[in-house]
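Class, look over these structure tokens:
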Amino acid sequence: MSMTQPLPPPEELRRLLYTPVLSDVLDSFGLMHQAVRPFIRPLDESLVLFGRVRTGRYVATDTITPGSNPYALEMDLIDDLKPGEVPVLACGGPTDRIAPWGELLSTAARARGAAGCVTDGLVRDVARIRAMRFPVFHGGIGPLDTKGRAEMVEKDAPIDIAGVRVAAGDWVMGDIDGVVFVPIDKADAVFRAALDKIAAEDSTRAELEAGDSLHAVYARHGVL
């Protein structure tokens, strides 16, 4: 794709892109650790998530301060979401204890135009979230509440989630193959290269379907 051409809008990029091609392009940029570990999976494999990152970090706790609101910081984050943003919640997962996401947060996030949620913690209220068709990528499923077990201690600060360093403002894509983060300072170049690679993959597929050999097609297009 020519550098002078404007990129498609986010809703079109969401339709065109997919995580394997983004991962391949990020590798070619020397960014080899942008895909999360494979324990993070979608609640609904038919849904695609694409948007700008907002971050939250949780830590385990065994106490509740009397009179305090243990959900205060996560409420601040969700109430402040803008259309197309994605809360990305780091819980040090995989975990069997920290469960930051459920139906009510999904409802509030969707009402603000959020594009989904990613967490390496647990999620609950799965049937209701699936019925909403709100894209959620999770590190496990369980009925636990965070109250008395964990608390968000930072928002919009850099986090580590499932092997990836992520900052607020980065881009995230999630689909049936997993979740990939694109650093904001590389996003324009990565998206352009990904669209070019998709075009090359389309040509490769057509030639393979016509019976050409892998060696010959790879020599022409350099993709596999």
